[in-house]
TrEMBL record:
Protein name in the entry: X8 domain-containing protein
Broad class of where this protein is predominantly found: membrane
Gene3D superfamilies linked: 1.20.58.1040
Record keywords, A-Z: Glycoprotein, GPI-anchor, Lipoprotein, Membrane, Signal
PANTHER family named in the record: BETA-1,3 GLUCANASE, CARBOHYDRATE-BINDING X8 DOMAIN SUPERFAMILY PROTEIN
Length: 216
């Protein structure tokens, strides 16, 4: 009888400890946005833009000439804006930002100047989420190059050099994002380490692709 009581006490204690451990993972409401992967192919971006704008045509009027979000007139920015409008309109579920693995859920507001990316609250458990740093989709080429030059003074940039695993696609936004993330990870994933003069964006989905593995 005594052994049975002892066993029950041990079981009760184990269940209590387990519940405390599960309780450490607390969900919270945070604002999220959807942006295109820096490595996304141009044809994929165009397909995302066309599809998202067919669902939310009113939101996409902001991308027309003489409207706040027309500039920069780049496919990755226009696609990101439309993808985010779709993501928010569909309820901000993680699967609404997949776009055949060409979308990333961002914890940093991609808005700039008079161009506002709508954002909504999402219930997330950030204690189990990874964090990576990429370039914001509207970042100009000169700022992307400046970010590469700065980060390469602090981390090894072999990944984006010819022959490196992240050389292709050979675009500034892809190369900058890879190196900005290396710098961010090397500096303890502090938010300010992904600031880069307000051109960095913290995302909670691994931007890795093919042979290019983003450090985490």
């Amino acid at each position: 009888m005594a052994k049975t009581k002892l066993s029950l006490a041990i079981l009760f204690l184990f269940l209590m400890l387990l519940s405390l451990d599960l309780g450490s993972s607390v969900t919270t409401n945070v604002k999220t946005w959807c942006v295109a992967k820096p490595s996304a192919r141009n044809d994929s971006l165009i397909a995302n833009l066309d599809y998202a704008c067919s669902v939310n045509p009113e939101e996409c009027t902001q991308l027309k000439d003489d409207h706040p979000c027309f500039n920069p007139d780049t496919t990755i920015h226009h696609a990101s804006f439309a993808m985010n409008a779709y993501y928010q309109g569909m309820g901000s579920h993680q699967w609404n930002c997949d776009f055949k693995d060409s979308g990333l859920i961002a914890l940093t507001d991609p808005s700039y100047a008079d161009c506002t990316y709508s954002g909504g609250d999402t219930v997330l458990d950030l204690s189990t989420s990874g964090k990576w740093c990429v370039a914001k989709p509207m970042t100009s080429d000169d700022l992307l190059q400046a970010n590469i030059d700065f980060a390469c003074n602090h981390v090894d940039c072999g990944l984006i050099r010819y022959g490196g695993g992240c050389y292709y696609p050979d675009t500034l936004i892809n190369h900058a994002s890879v190196i900005m993330n290396l710098y961010y990870q090397a500096n303890g994933r502090e938010d300010m380490s992904c600031y880069f003069k307000n051109t960095g964006c913290i995302v909670m989905k691994d931007p890795s692709y093919d042979e290019c593995k983003y450090k985490f």
